[in-house]
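Lab notebook: predicted structure, single chain.

Context: the supervisor wants predicted structures on file for every construct in the current expression panel, including those that have not yet been purified. This is the next one on the list. No modifications to the sequence; it matches the entry in the shared construct table.
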Amino acid sequence: MKIIDELPEQVRHIEHQWIPMPDGTRLAARLWIPESAEQTPVPAILEYIPYRRRDGSRLRDEANHPYFAGHGYACIRVDIRGSGDSEGVLTDEYLQQELDDGVAILAWLEEQPWCNGRVGMIGISWGGFNGLQIAALQPPQLKAVVSVCSTDDRYADDVHYMGGCLLGDNLSWASVMFAYNSLPPDPDIVGDRWRDMWFQRLEGSGLWLETWLQHQHRDDYWRHGSICEDFSRIEVPVMAVSGWADGYSNAVFRLLEKLPGPRLGLIGPWSHKYPHQGVPGPAIGFLQECLRWWDKWLKDRETGIMEEPTLRAWMLDSMPPSTSYHQRFGRWVSEAKWPSPATIERHFTLAPYRLVKSHSTADVATLALQSPLSNGLFAGKWCSYSNTPDLPHDQREEDGGALVFTTDPLEETLEILGAPVVELNLSASEPVAMIAVRLSDMRPDNKVTRVTYGVLNLTHRDSHAAPSPLEPEATYRVRLQLNGIAQSFPRGHRLRLALSSSYFPLAWPPPRSTQLKVHTGGSRLILPVRRPKPQEISFPEPESTPSSEKTQIHEGHHDWRVIRELDKDISTLEVINDNGVYYLEDPDLTIEQSVKEWYSYQADDFSSPRGETLAVRAYQRGEWQIRTTTRTVLTCDDQNFYLDAELDAFEGKRRVFSRNWNRIIKRNLL
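Prediction complete. Output recorded below exactly as produced.
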């Protein structure tokens, strides 16, 4: 990363600015404004998220926004209502109130003497979501969006559910926000009322996981904020960005295909990171790309950005399996439009334990599958946050409990770009069942690297909105689209397709152990094959502006451990994300952050899966000292989910708030 100290414009930094909302609530903002903007107003760039601009996202904000400001943009980072130092209480994601507040922020920006009324929105994850959602409301000030690691579909392609299956990340993410929502505003910003504001949050934010578990199917709750319900509402230009190690890469393909206005897609090898900070590498000069985008759409300058191919993607080379990559080898490829006419379908038919290009009656068989709960312990995380090691391990350990189909060694290199599809004829022994499908690269030394995967709750085979139980032993034809990917399979390697009937803890298992029967006749794998072609695509090296001082006081620890207690036949995946204790000089804060997660099961008991999270957050400045602990436990039987949670808040050593939740939520074809 090249740190840029000298920029074309001198920048004025405003640590804190109140923005009034129509109902009188004030939102807290941090601003970077070119000094010349007071005489010559400039466009504005807004990032609007709940991750505490004062301390949580401070260093990242400082790496991004001053860079844009130094190139002639007024940059503003706003805490969502009820988060950070903003007034109010945050009770869920993407509420209409949040979007209405966003529209009000845009109107406020237009009124400022340093803004010319043209605004762009940028954000990763939450900020990528609400950039698209606010664009769908068509506020006149919003002229362009850069949406990173986001989705158009809150039910089918978000952290909560995948293929109608409950994701383990649903618990993990709910726990992250449970901890964020327990934190107070900064007394240096809000004064003596910090404690009253804190208790409003402690008492009012609620247990979001309960809400998410109550909406197990695609209903109006999930349709709200899902721009796929009407793509035509977004008329402004959109740059959609993600990474293959992220959970949100599929949305880039859909946005390129469905949005009516100008759009560009960019997918690198990265996890849930901005691309100039991207891991696994290579990182790119993403801020420079954004400048080309902003200059085009906010300043009407021809930068050549729209002469770029519609999709630019990192074609992954084959690499040995690993739970952590510093760098993913490969090359940049491009497509002039998406879907690309240069991508063709290639079919492989399922035969007994083989993938073949053609089949005969001798290849037709019925194969039984009943996976143990251990399938999935080495699956990695649905969305990698680079809290390594969180990527999938050698798949041979997973394949032992799966039904596996393998090709002969490839006679020539095979490259795919897009979403593989699996069509299966199958039956199940239970009315509620799931299937997980993994496509892997099998190397000549027999090591197996997962390339992509998908999961499907088989009761959702026809609809996420109106699922229906299976008739045991009846045969169904199901279609499962795997996550999109760009992957090169070298000559001499083999493709491996693995099917399993459980995939915990990435996805919560079905109520009972289920035997699936796969009928190979008519079952097939469909690959989006791309012919290699000469390309000259490159990006500049990453740049950013310097961030303020961070001093590590106690080192943190990040780890994933699989623990097998053979005497009790209990297996546990332990995830540790401990950032230790550190000091931020500018806000004069000492901060402690740690999250621990445990996912366990016993033997082959499908009522035994258990997820537990524990988060500790603490802040100190002089005599002001607060700490919160949040704990969530999710268990089940074949009829219900059982949700237990607790929140404790401390001033100094004195506990000042405590609340427990105990909820029973009925399983509904899940």
